[in-house]
Design brief:
The protein has 473 residues and is an alpha+beta fold. The protein is elongated and about 90 Å long. 43% of the residues are buried. Its EC number is 6.5.1.8. It catalyses: a 3'-end 3'-phospho-ribonucleotide-RNA + a 5'-end dephospho-ribonucleoside-RNA + GTP = a ribonucleotidyl-ribonucleotide-RNA + GMP + diphosphate.
Length: 473
Amino acid sequence: MIEIVSGQDLIDAGMPQGKWFRPALDAANKVLSEGGSMDVAIAAARAFQPAPTVPLRREGDIKIYSNIRAENAFEHENVEKVNATMRALARTPVVRAAAIMPDACPAGPVGTIPVGGVVASEAIHPGMHSADICCSMAISVFPGVDPKALLDAIHSVTHFGPGGRAVGQQIKPSEATLAAFHQNPYLTGAALNVGIEHFGTQGDGNHFAYVGTMKSTGETALVTHHGSRAPGARLYERGMKVANKFRELLSPETHRENAWIPADTEEGDQYWSALQTIRQWTKENHYILHDMAAEKLSAKVSDRFWNEHNFVFRKSDGLFYHGKGATPAFDGWADDATDLTIIPLNMAEPILIVRGSNAAHGLGFSPHGAGRNFSRSAHMRRLGEEYGADQRGLSPNNMADIMAKETAGLDARFFSGNADMSELPSAYKSAANVRAQIEHYGLAEVVDEVIPFGSIMAGDWQRDAPWRKKKRR
C-alpha cells in the first residue's frame, strides 16, 4: 500500500488547519514519493506553517496624546469621534505612540487615522499617509510684484481639476526624478506615465494657489497647496496591496487600513525609497508652478521653502512617524528642512509661518490647517437649511449671497468657473480657535503671516457634468 500524508496527519501533528495545507501536503507527499520517511515528510509540511499571528494590543496599552479641545457642542462630537478612532487604531500591534492635533477630524470608519493624527510605528502603514501622499505647502516671495499681477500669472500657468495636462502642454519632471521612477518597482508603468501627465497640476478639493503679502515686510508671496496627484495615488494602491498581504500573514485582526509593510524587508526598503521619490516629484511640482509664474512676470524670487504635512518621517529612534494632515515640528525633519513651516487656515485668513517646538506631547508635530467639524455634504446640508434651499440644493442667488458674504475683500477664484461652497471659510473650524490651541499646547510658534489678497481653487468642476445636469432636471 502506498503511504500518503493527509490533512488529518498534519492536524494530528499539531498543525493548525488553513489554506497553507494544500502546498504543505504536496511537498510532504513528494518526499514520500521519492523514498523519504514519514517524519521527513511531516517536517517538509511544517515548513509551510505560517508564523504565529500577532494579536491586537489591548485598549489603553499605547499612549495617545490629545492636543485638542472642544469649543462648542459640534466640536465636542468631533473630538469624541477622533478620540474613538485613535483608540481603535492604537491597538495595531506595531504602533508605539499616537497624538491628536487641534485641527483633527475623522476620515473614515472607526480605526482609520483621522486628519490631524500622528502615529509612531515600527513599520510603514500606507493607509496612514493615504492616497494624497506628500500633500504639502510651498511659499515663494516675489519682492516688488503686485499681488493681482501674481494671482493672474499663477492663474494662467496652473491647472486644477481632474486629469493632467493635455498632450502638447505637458512638462517633464527632472531627469533624476524620472530615473528614480524607472528604478523602483512601485513606480514603474502607470505611475511613471501619470508622473509626466500630472506634473504642473494641482488637483481639486482643498488644494489652492494663494497670493498675499508678508506681514513682516509687505512683500508679495505665492503659497501653493497640493500633493502628489495620480503618481502618489498609484503608489498608495500598490503599497496597500503589499501591506495587506503582510497583514493577512502577520495580523489578520488588524484593521485593513492599518496594514503595514515591515521595515526590515525588501518590500519595505523599496516602498520607503518610493516615498522619497514621490516627495521629490511633489516638491518639483510646487516649484515648477512658482517658476512659471515668475517667468510670466519676469520677476525674481527672493526666498522660498516648503514642507509636507501628509507623509512618513523616520526619526533617530528608528520609528516611522506618520503625519496624516500634521506638520513636522521637530528639528531636521528632512535633509532640505528649514526651521520654518507653513500652516494655512482658510482663504479669508492669514497663512501662518511657524517655527516648530518639537513638543513631546505632539510627537514633534503641529497642525496642518483649520480642519473640519462636518463633512462636505453635511456642511452643504447646513447651508441649505440656513438659506432655505429646496431639495435641488442652493440656488444661484443663494450661492452668490454666500460668496459675497464669505469672500468680501478677497479676489477668490475657481478654476472651473463654478464656486465650491464646501471650500468657503464657514466649512472649516474656527481659525482663531485652532490658532489659540497651537499656542495653548505649545506645538509651534507663529513667526510671520501671509495676509490674504486672493486665491484660486478647482471649484465645483463636476457641477456641469452630464449626469449632474440630468439629476437637476
